[in-house]
Amino acid sequence: MTATGAVWRNWGRTEAVKPARVERPSRVEAVQRAVIAAAKSGMRIKAVGAGHSFSGIAVAGGVQLDLHALRGIRSVDSARLQVTLAGGTFLHEIPRLLAPFGLAMQNLGDIDRQTISGAISTGTHGTGRRFGGISTQVVGAVLVVGDGSLLTVSETENVELLPAVALGLGSLGIIVEVTLQCVPTFVLHATEAAEPLDDVLSRVDARADAVDHFEFYWFPHTRTALTKTNARLPAHTVRRPLSPLRRFIDDELVSNQLFRVTCMAGRAVPAVIPHINRAAEKLTGTREFSDLSARVFATKRTVRFVEMEYAVPAEDVPTVLGEIDDLIESRGWRISFPIEVRFAAADDVLLSTASGRETGYIAVHRYYRDDPAEYFRAVEEIMMAHHGRPHWGKMNTRDAASLRTVYPHFDEFLAVRDRLDPERRFANTYLERVLGR
């Protein structure tokens, strides 16, 4: 299906574009035809997922490919615990698809609205000192490359390309299939608590090392960390999920509806934000529950926001947070959204934010109706001083020359890009900035 482009906007309302043409292929062959046709007409072409990137990574001014018709399981290798999914499959659909096979994804982020191809193309990750981002679960992929041909990358074909293809920023081709290394279904036991921020930071390395998954949120203008600790348990473990009423009160009423009201109030009267944040830490009490992994990892988010996230060496997390705290107070800013801190293992994916080093992630947010520019730029300067790497799908101002200094395999990735898309058929303004022309 082909249509004249209407205005497309991402979820965070940071990007908008009117594509010259929108195509909605339902078969891989149709994707190939679309790429060939774009090449003949001298147009660029890009796939768009769920629009959950805050950066311009998915902006398509030429041909926009909507892959929502390419979803579901393509094949299952039960012996190897590997599953091949169509590229347009949403993360929130995958647990249901894997359940009949007794499988689960090894780790997930706290938002599951993205497509699998979008998630791996931007470096979506969860938390856990012994676990990598979603791209580290990729053991194969099929792409439509610049000349319209199919490229299979697997453990037996073109294996040398896997570290680039597993996190390719959408710059190498259109991902039509992704093969994931899964694990047997498991349960997570979750413990959530409000704790003194200084206590958490003083032993944050030990906390992250001692458990499977650890993260925390910190509301500026307070000294409290809202910690989340998840322990992995076998599938046969008796589950004690939150009751529907408790889930509604905590995750819908307080975390979304009430938070939306407080964000609007803070926008109208910024001076009340410190008081609101201190009230928020009191409303967030301790809770403990257990459920299937995907039901614990992912959180419903309906309050629209914009985000910048940086990966820094894990040992720098306390220092960086202290510098952000000093920055906020010295500038007199009133920040309503919490700062999120997560962790990941080092990996060998070329453009992974955790490539080659144990990593701490620090994410800053603003309500989508607020102007984030001054806050984000000042925080970004702190991150850069700590050799930070920006999340590819979130807001940043970095360019290729700057990023080359923090990615040891940057030029190796560019060589793969030159091989698979020498005409830059899949480029856009964002990719020209972060990768060069």
Automatic annotation (TrEMBL):
It comes from the Bacteria. The keyword Oxidoreductase applies. InterPro entries: ALO_C, FAD-bd_PCMH, FAD-bd_PCMH-like_sf, FAD-bd_PCMH_sub1, FAD-bd_PCMH_sub2, FAD_lactone_oxidase-like, Oxid_FAD_bind_N, Vanillyl_alc_oxidase_C-sub2. GO terms for molecular function: D-arabinono-1,4-lactone oxidase activity; FAD binding; L-gulono-1,4-lactone dehydrogenase activity. Residues 15-185 form the FAD-binding PCMH-type domain. The keyword Chaperone does not apply. Keywords: Oxidoreductase. GO terms for cellular component: membrane. It comes from Subtercola lobariae. This is FAD-linked oxidoreductase.
